[in-house]
Amino acid sequence: MAENKNIRNIRPEEPDRIAWDNADPAKSLQDIRNVVELEGQKAIDWYWKAKRWKRIPSQWIQFWALLLTAAAGLVPIVVQLVKNAGVVSAGFDSGPLASLFVGIAAALLGLDKAFGYSSGWTRYVLTASSMTRLLHEFRMDWVALSAAAAVPPAAEQQAVMIQRAKEFVATIQGMVAQETKDWATEFQSNMARMEKDLKAQLDSLKAQVDKGVKDKEAAAKPGAIELSVTNADKTDNFTFEVVLEGQSGKSMDSVSNASVWTRINTAPGQYRVIVNARSKGSIASTSTIVDVKPGDTARPSVTLPMG
Predict the structure, then answer these.
(1) How far apart are the first and last CA of the chain?
(2) Which among 183, 217, 251 is the end of a domain?
(3) Which of 103, 275, 295, 306 could make a disulfide contact with 221, Cβ separation 3.0–4.6 Å?
């Protein structure tokens, strides 16, 4: 049974409070009635008092969750109205604020469920109400048994009245045990659900982080350029010059007796490739833009303008 630190547990009466005096059975029966009624009333009072520590958090959580949820729905409308009035910038985005309100509301409801404020409040009220009904029934039954008994009550009548008291105490104690069992089951279920949700969130976060790392590594993976000069064999001495311009600067290579120029381990990005050559003593030049993708080989092709 959940309890607040300011509320003591339901404790039974001391054993010596229940005694039997053969010389005065009527008084002994009255003592038994007083003891069992006190036990029942103590349990009832405990639940009515303890429900306050469930009711107050439950009401506040439900109030703020409802208010925040409503605010999340109203914020976009209000923001649009003030945008139209020119009070705030047209670029203001109300989405994150609405999401924040919904997230807080969900967290509050999760808190209520995890600690069983609303469900505990309901259980306490139902248990106290049922115990009150049982106490009233016991009192009426005891009066009926007393009215039908002789003075002093016969042994059979005494046994019936003691049995009725025993049944009442057993029922009250059984209700306390069942409510405690329900609380323990709910608490364990909520903790298991929280652990499951937390594990799922951690797994999702880990997957996102791993994906981000992989994406970053993939985006940084170098590529290559394989440039073809279709008429390289028409250049003087079958030679041409390649200038590669990019964010990291400029580089220059010379190619002889080949029509293909290659560059490996090239960082991803856009490059300008300039090809210069001589043809019959005149300078021929052309250029192209090359987009190098991560882990891929760009294969541009150019033709030198020759007269």
Answers:
(1) 98
(2) 217
(3) 295
